[in-house]
């Protein structure tokens, strides 16, 4: 929740969640843009923002919004479940 408290963040802002050296924080967040979880404000920039596009956390974000009453009833099916985005969540695999 550290990055969600402001519009943008730098690696140093994540110190409470990712203790260690600045190099360790940079390594920890290096793969997040490729996974679509964060985006740089400028190409190769060091200021980032959260990406709200479809990615591995989207089903969990939609579920939390639904439980909080932010998903309109129009989008909830007759069973009371909101439509989940397609794709795999962490620890889940698609049937083969």
How would you describe this protein?
The protein is an alpha+beta fold and 96 residues long. It has two domains: 3-50, Arc Repressor Mutant, subunit A; 54-84, no CATH class. 20% of the residues lie in helices and 6% in strands. The chain has two helices and two strands, in the order H-E-E-H. It has helices spanning 22-30, 58-67; strands at 38-40, 48-50. The chain has a two-stranded antiparallel ribbon. Strand 1 and strand 2 (48-50) form a beta hairpin. The termini are far apart. 1% of the residues are buried. Mean pLDDT is 79; it is low at 88-94.
Q: How would you sum up this structure in a few lines?
A:
By secondary structure, the chain is α+β, with helices and mostly antiparallel strands.
Query: In terms of quaternary structure, what is this?
Result: single chain
Give the % helix.
10-25%
Order of helices and strands: HEEH
Give the helix/strand class: alpha+beta
In CATH, the architecture of the largest domain is: Orthogonal Bundle
**Radius of gyration, whole Å:** 16 Å
What layout of secondary structure does this protein have?
Layout: H1 22-30, E1 38-40, E2 48-50, H2 58-67
Antiparallel strand pairs: 1-2
Which key features would you list for this structure?
96 residues; alpha+beta; Arc Repressor Mutant, subunit A; 2 domains; two-stranded antiparallel sheet; 6% strand
